[in-house]
Amino acid sequence: MACIFCQIIERTIPADVVHEDDDLIVFKDINPKGAIHVLLVPKTHIATVNDLEIHHIPVMGHMFEVVQQLAATWDIVEQGYRLTVNVGRGGGQEVDHIHMHMVSGWMRRP
Length: 110
Ligand code: 5GP
Ligand code: ZN
Known about the structure:
By secondary structure, the chain is α+β, with helices and mostly antiparallel strands. About 20% of the residues lie in helices and about 20% in strands. The N and C termini lie far apart (about 35 Å).
């Protein structure tokens, strides 16, 4: 399996996992851009937003439920945080397994 995020999901390479359930894994980014920087990753290998299909809607919606839970846990609801999904090389996507970045403690504007 060449996909690095699939390998993290399968625990063949290590990651600092902060949440896991049947459909989703969340782990700390290896190169954090903020005090908090995690990646929310569906366990199903979907390459990019361009590859989303109707049956992926529940897991993508669930991603936002987990974002809310983590924001409450880390007490950053009021402070705020950034969610980013890069799409394709031109959009800054380096890992071809769909994921959402959740970053806090980084005030730089896009
Ligand atoms: P992208 O540019 O594809 O939106 O984001 C990929 C992210 O994955 C980058 O922020 C990068 O630091 C992170 N990343 C790449 N390889 C690994 C890894 O092996 N472990 C972890 N925890 N993060 C990784
Ligand atoms: Zn994958």
